Amino acid sequence: MRLDSKYFDRIRTRRKREPETEQAPPTCQWDGCDKKGAHRAPVGRNAEGQFFLFCFEHVKEYNKGYNYFSGLSDGEIARYQKEATTGHRPTWTVGVNKAAKDSPLHSEIRSGAYTRVRDPFGFVKEGGKGSGPRFPQARKLKSLETKAFETMGLDANATSAEIKSRYKELVKKHHPDANGGDRGSEERFRAVIQAYQLLKQNGFC
Predict the structure, then answer these.
(1) pTM for the complete prediction?
(2) 199 to each of 82, 143, 152, 177, 188, how far by Cα in Å?
């Protein structure tokens, strides 16, 4: 290749970088101190991300008296701590979900007293505009629940009001003060109370 070729003129070489001058470390910002300020200390509330630069001795001194909540009342401090649990992001209470208020109890779902029906306009539920579900489903009862209904002398589809009414009637009838000391009536009294408690615990009344 010829040394006087035109292609040599197009070749560009990078300039050598000049060595960067090292910046002198900042001095301590403590009044009257000329040591190196190698340690950061927070400026304070409403100045997040900003720091003072102190030497080791003065950063310890500064941190001893540092109080982020300085100037705030107890109520403001409590509010800040509460908001800090969610990262100071807005939250909504569970109560804003209107459907949660009408959601069934766990015991109702277990006993089959609640049927999962999507009813946004309230046509099916009690007190709604409609005449009720077209095909009401029978409750699925366990053996103890079936026995409790039999003890109360009620049908499995008895309403909460009917169960309570029947309970009051049987308790009044078989109460020890009203049965004249009859042992059989006393046992019946205990059985009625146990049956009612079981139905109540399982969400029937």
Answers:
(1) 0.35
(2) 42, 12, 10, 25, 17
